[in-house]
Design brief:
Elements (H helix, E strand, L loop, with lengths): L4 E12 L3 H12 L4 E4 L7 H5 L5 E2 L8 E2 H13 L4 E3 L4 E6 L5 E5 L2 E10 L5 E4 L15 E2 L12 E5 L3 H10 L5 E5 L9 H8 L4 E3 L2 E7 L6 E6 L5 E5 L2 E4 L3 E4 L10 E2 L2 E3 L11 E3 L4 E2 L7 H19 L19
Parallel strand pairs: 1-2, 1-8, 2-5, 8-21, 10-17, 11-12, 11-17, 12-13, 20-22
Antiparallel strand pairs: 3-4, 6-7, 7-8, 9-18, 14-15, 15-16, 19-20
Helix pairs in contact: 1-3, 1-6, 4-5
Length: 336
Amino acid sequence: MNLLQKDEQVYDITIIGGGPAGLFTAFYGGMRQVSVKIIESMPQLGGQLSALYPEKYIYDVAGFPKVLAQDLINNLKEQVSRFQPTVCLEEKVENVEKKPNDIFEITTDKGIHYSRAVIITAGVGAFEPRKLEHPDAAKYEKANLHYFVTDLNSFKGQRVAVIGGGDSAVDWALMLEPIAKEVTLIHRRDKFRAHEHSVEMLMASSVNVTTPYEIAALHGDERIERLTIVNNVTKEERDLEVDAVIVNFGFISSLGPIKNWGLELEKGGILVNSRMETNIPGIYAAGDIATYPGKVKLIAVGFGEAPTAVNNAVAYINPDAKLQPGHSSSMDNFKS
C-alpha cells in the first residue's frame, strides 16, 4: 500500500489548477504577501493553453494585439516566479475538507496538504479528447495519430490529414498549411462549425477540403500510412496516403471529484458571489470554473476574477487585512 505524503506546512492560499487564471491568482497572492501553493493535475503549468493550443494565437488579452498561447503562459510563469510559490505537478485533488480548526485538508492522489483558504481555478475541470471511434485507432496513438498539437514544426514536409469541422480543426489546418507538404481537412458534413472568417480563409487556402467524408479504414503496421474515406452521401470510397493524422472532435470535460466537495454547483461550474466566494467560507473560485449570472468564459475575465478572489481570501484569513490592495507601482516588493 502506498502511503500518502503529508506536507505539514499550512499555506495561506492553495490554488487548485495551474492554468492562466491559476497562475495570475498565484502572482496576486504573492503580491499580497501570503504563502501560496499551486496543485496542478497536468505534467506542466498552463492548463488547456499548454496542453491543447500552445501554438495558437490569442487575440483578446488586453495589451497584446496577439500572443501565442504558450508565450502567454511563459509570461505568466515569469511574472509569478518573483514570489516563488510552491508548485505540485501531476497531482490530482480528490477531496477538500474543512477541519474543526478551520484549516482545509486537501487530499490528492499523492499526498495531503493544508491551507487556510482555497481558490479553485480548475478551468473546465478534467478534460480528455473525443477520440476517433475506430477499432484500430488506439494502436496508432503513440505513433502518428494525434489529438493534441504541441509542435507545429514536427509536421514539416509531411502529408497531414486533419479530421473535424470545428474551430480547432480549421485553425490547425490553416496553421499547418505553410509548414506541411500537404494538408487535407476531412469533415463529415458540408458545412463547418468554425468561425465564418476562418472558413473563408480555409476556402481561399491550398488546404484540400474534403466533405462530406468520414474515416472508413486505417491502414499501416506501426504507423498510419493510408486512410480510406467514404462519402456520406454517395458512399464513394477514396484512399489517401498520409504521414500524420490529427483528430479534432472536441473535448469531454467534467468536474470530476469537485462535485463531491459540498460546493454549490450550477451549469457545470462552481457558483460564486461577487467576491468569488463559494457556499463554503474560505473556498473561492475564479476563471472558467466559476459561474454567476452573466458570466462570460474568457481568459480576460479570469484575470479579473483572480485579484477579487485573492483579496477576499486574504481578508478571510486575516480580518484586519485591507481588502483593497495598494497599487503595484508603489509596492516595495516590486522595487529592484
